[in-house]
Structures are given as structure tokens and as C-alpha cells.
Amino acid sequence: MAKPRVDGGSRSFRSLPFPHAPPLAPLAVRALPPQAGEGFMTTAISTWGGMEAFQFGRGATMADELGALVVAGTKTATCWPAAEGELTHVGKRMVMLDGQGRGWAVIETIELTQRRFDAVDAAFAHDEGEDDRTLAAWRDGHRRYFTAEGSFAPDMLLWCERFRLVEVLERETMR
Q: Rounded to an integer, what distance in angstroms lies between the CA atom of residue 132 and that of residue 126?
């Protein structure tokens, strides 16, 4: 099975509580549709049990592709331009939405650092889980993504987040 090729994109199973995380009571997610030109993490904020909800990437297809990598355990990191602000903090939990705006999973930030684009290392590129997980593929995909967003510079400052999957939600019941 070929790995999906995702050109950049960061930060959009069945219920599977993890033993170290308390179960979450299902509440409805009401997501706003993504707006044209939204940034790296679509932040059409809604709430789910008091948590912010978001989609990775740009558009429904990318949100679904990146979300699938998260729930598979392949994607455990993301980044976005520092100019978009500090969108999370260590310990913060958020609901990841699928491309249709339904709650898909709860993630928790476990590390947040700032790095320049050209200083991102192979370990972080691997943890992003995209393409073949190499630094060269990460740089190529993210350069194209950030260029399309109008924010690319080789020395641009990024927020680099590592997160853990807390729980996968029952999407068909989350409307």
C-alpha cells in the first residue's frame, strides 16, 4: 500500500480510549466550514467538551489525509508559521476535525518549540509522518505548502509541536 503524499499540512477508528487518559464524554461538535485562504491549521473554532476544534491543512481532502495519519499513529508532530501565533501550549487538548467538520480525535500537545524552517531536523520531519518521512521530503512539501500560502522563507520561524493521540472519536455520531 502506497503512503499518501501530502504536500505539507499540519495541525485538521472507533472510540479507543487510552489507559493513561480519562474517557471523554461525547458532546456534539459544531464546526464552521473552512474559509478560503485560512492558514496552516484551519482554526474554525468550535468546542467539544470545552476544547477547541480544528482541521489540519487546507481543505477537506488534506484534513482527511492528515487526520488518517494521526489516528494511525504515524503523524505525531506538526508545525505552522510563527506569524500565525502560538496556537497551543503543552498540556492543551484539542479536537481534530475531519474534512466534513466532524470530531475525529482528541490530541494533546506534549512539546512546543520555535525553530527556523531551515533548522528543522530529520527527527521532527519523521514525526510529521508525511510522504516518505525524510527531511528532504518534509522540506519540499512544506516549502510548496508555505509558498502557496504566501508565507515561505528559508529562515521563516515556525512553531513546531509534538502531540499525542488521546482518543479516537466515533465520527458517525459526532454531528
A: 8
